[in-house]
Design a protein that fits this description.
Length: about 250
């Protein structure tokens, strides 16, 4: 229970953050903007669903390595996964930026909401590399037995994302008035800061999953490790993708 409750708390906060942002967009920009974020959300959830399986597989392999007290194996696993996830995130960000209009039309996004949905989605696609890495690092921390730090990172993410939304939407104070794009920019900034916090914590505490010096070569994906991660991760990812498809 002590290990599970922080993870449950992080999931609740993530849902709460989405709800708060929906309130900001709906009340400040109206129903057309709300429809735009809703349709974009389905596209983004599909990408997160696919990454969920890979992150969970990484958690399993790191947990097994820590159980064997094989620190190098844990670092190799995380390094290969970081390299793979970063590459996937960058590729999806580029493809998503270019193809988001077609994706939203496939979802029958209302014509009035389509322009705003495209603007919002493009910024959200730019956030994918940092979001994927954050998801991976929180999974890795749970793999070494730390469920509290991911909760702290989620609290920071929610405070920044939900807190910055109205400032970027309405242009309050020194912030630019970006409308619906501002909501996505707030999410992008919150994700980058949360990722920075996780990296700072991992290296400050010199945790088993940190990479230094010659260990940085582990960032080059190892085909055998990646094959294992994919083999374990695909069934879990497909479960989430099926749920996303149902939505």
């Amino acid at each position: 229970l002590l290990f599970a409750l922080p993870t449950l708390g992080a999931n609740v906060l993530q849902s709460l953050n989405s709800s708060i942002n929906t309130v900001w967009v709906g009340n400040m920009l109206g129903e057309t903007a709300l429809a735009a974020t809703s349709n974009s959300g389905f596209v983004m959830f599909l990408t997160f669903a696919a990454m969920f399986g890979l992150s969970m597989a990484t958690t399993i392999l790191i947990g097994q390595a820590m159980g064997r007290r094989d620190i190098e194996a844990a670092r190799r696993t995380l390094g290969s996964s970081v390299g793979m996830v970063t590459l996937i995130g960058v590729v999806l960000a580029i493809i998503g930026w270019a193809a988001v209009g077609h994706l939203l039309r496939l979802l029958a996004t209302p014509g009035g909401a389509l322009p705003q949905a495209i603007v919002y989605s493009r910024v959200m696609f730019l956030s994918l590399p940092s979001v994927f890495l954050t998801l991976l690092l929180t999974s890795a921390l749970r793999g070494v037995g730390d469920a509290v730090t991911p909760l702290r990172a989620m609290i920071l993410n929610v405070l920044l994302d939900a807190g910055l939304n109205p400032f970027f939407i309405a242009g309050i104070g020194p912030f630019p008035k970006l409308g619906i794009e501002g909501s996505a920019v707030a999410t992008l900034i919150a994700g980058i800061v949360s990722l920075g916090y996780l990296l700072f914590y991992i290296y400050r505490k010199d945790l088993a999953i940190r990479l230094r010096g010659a260990e940085l070569r582990f960032l080059k994906p190892d085909p055998a490790l990646i094959a294992t991660v994919v083999k374990l991760g695909i069934p879990m990812g497909l479960t989430m993708i099926v749920m996303s498809g149902g939505m």
